[in-house]
């Protein structure tokens, strides 16, 4: 694992990472979920959806040209779009999330947990950057210690920092990139920090109708890749589910036949949230010193060789049993 000189680590394409990232930046009332399909029935279970974050294999030639996407680049200031350019490496995940949420309208609610708002940190950022160009906004984001700290809090721990220039012949890993799609002022936009300006796609109706246009746009983009390519991931930024489900269950007018479905959804969301909290906690703790200390103690007691041989024997046994069952 090499350290990027920018000081920003790669972002894992995990909805729990993005959900916690937004929370740590002060955003309220939103969560991020995986989106495995763009069909109507899947989208219906996740509504209201405010934005989509699309991860795809990055092709360098598409960074500054119109290749791979439709639409027209427009001036963000003239069209009321908050848009920041990516000015440093590895920041595209956080940048895509911020480009999305900074354009989501705050929504007040009688239930405080369902209120959608940016929070003081991002509110101040939006006020401070009002009227600035995309390049300047990108530099403001990249120079924010708090945003960089939150972004890097999910980075994987490694005891090694290898200089990539020391291995010039080493095959480079595929690069992936995040962009956001969402409706702004009745228009579907694509917000790609590597482009100079936002991309305007098509007019959309109020409400959830924009998802139909977004689906067609993303499917068209996926269609430019070879058939069968698995180079994509799609996340959706949606209203927080648990407060809404709790409100509906506490509402006496909710039909009895609907309550069972709502209760199942609530249990699913709670389980997912608890699992996400545990996974994020593990991401943020460096367990390598514990592992090294364990190996050192085993070595001092002279049992590490025996443990390795036992592990090899168990692995061999499992492999033979799988082979016997025709699993390999």
Topology diagram in text:
Blueprint: H1 15-24, E1 30-34, H2 40-46, E2 49-57, E3 72-73, H3 92-101, H4 120-128, H5 134-142, H6 145-152, E4 176-184, E5 187-191, E6 199-203, H7 210-222, E7 232-239, H8 241-250, H9 256-283, H10 288-300, H11 304-324
Antiparallel strand pairs: 1-7, 2-4, 2-7, 3-6, 4-5, 5-6
Helix pairs in contact: 8-9
Catalytic activity: Thiol-dependent hydrolysis of ester, thioester, amide, peptide and isopeptide bonds formed by the C-terminal Gly of ubiquitin (a 76-residue protein attached to proteins as an intracellular targeting signal)
Site (Important for enzyme activity): 192
Site (Transition state stabilizer): 86
Structural description of this entry:
GO terms for molecular function: cysteine-type deubiquitinase activity. The active site is at residues 92, 177. Its EC number is 3.4.19.12. Helix content is 42%, strand content 13%. It is an alpha+beta fold and 328 residues long. It has two domains: 15-239, Peptidase C12, ubiquitin carboxyl-terminal hydrolase (Ubiquitin C-terminal Hydrolase UCH-l3, 3-Layer(aba) Sandwich), CATH 3.40.532; 288-324, no CATH class. It has a seven-stranded antiparallel β-sheet with strand order 1-7-2-4-5-6-3, with helices on both faces. It is globular, with a radius of gyration of 23 Å.
């Amino acid at each position: 694992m090499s350290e990027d000189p920018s000081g920003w680590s790669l972002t894992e394409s995990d909805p729990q990472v993005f959900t916690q990232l937004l929370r740590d930046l002060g955003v309220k009332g939103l969560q991020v979920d995986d989106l495995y399909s763009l069909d109507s029935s899947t989208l219906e279970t996740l509504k209201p959806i405010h934005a989509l974050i699309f991860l795809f294999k990055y092709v360098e030639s598409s960074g500054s040209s119109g290749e791979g996407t439709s639409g027209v680049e427009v001036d963000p200031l003239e069209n009321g779009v908050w848009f920041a350019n990516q000015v440093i490496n590895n920041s595209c995940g956080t940048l895509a999330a911020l480009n999305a949420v900074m354009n989501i309208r705050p929504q007040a609610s009688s239930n405080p947990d369902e209120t959608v708002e940016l929070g003081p940190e991002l509110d101040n950022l939006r006020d401070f950057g009002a009227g600035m160009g995309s390049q300047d906004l990108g530099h403001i984001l990249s120079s924010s210690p708090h945003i960089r700290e939150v972004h890097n809090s999910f980075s994987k721990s490694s005891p090694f920092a290898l200089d990539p220039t020391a291995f010039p012949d080493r095959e480079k890993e595929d690069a992936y990139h995040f962009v956001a799609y969402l409706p702004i002022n009745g228009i579907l936009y694509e917000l790609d920090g590597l482009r100079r300006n936002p991309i305007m796609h098509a007019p959309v109706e109020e409400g959830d109708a924009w998802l139909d246009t977004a689906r067609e746009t993303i499917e068209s983009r996926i269609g430019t890749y070879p058939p069968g390519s698995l180079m994509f991931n799609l996340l959706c930024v949606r209203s927080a589910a648990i407060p809404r489900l709790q409100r509906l269950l506490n509402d006496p007018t909710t039909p009895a036949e609907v309550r069972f479905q709502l209760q199942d959804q609530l249990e699913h969301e709670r389980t997912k949230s608890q699992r996400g909290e545990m996974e994020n906690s593990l991401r943020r703790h460096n367990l390598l010193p514990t592992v090294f200390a364990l190996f050192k103690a085993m070595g001092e007691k002279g049992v590490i060789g025996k443990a390795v041989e036992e592990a090899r024997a168990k692995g061999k046994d499992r492999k033979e049993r799988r082979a016997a069952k025709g699993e390999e």
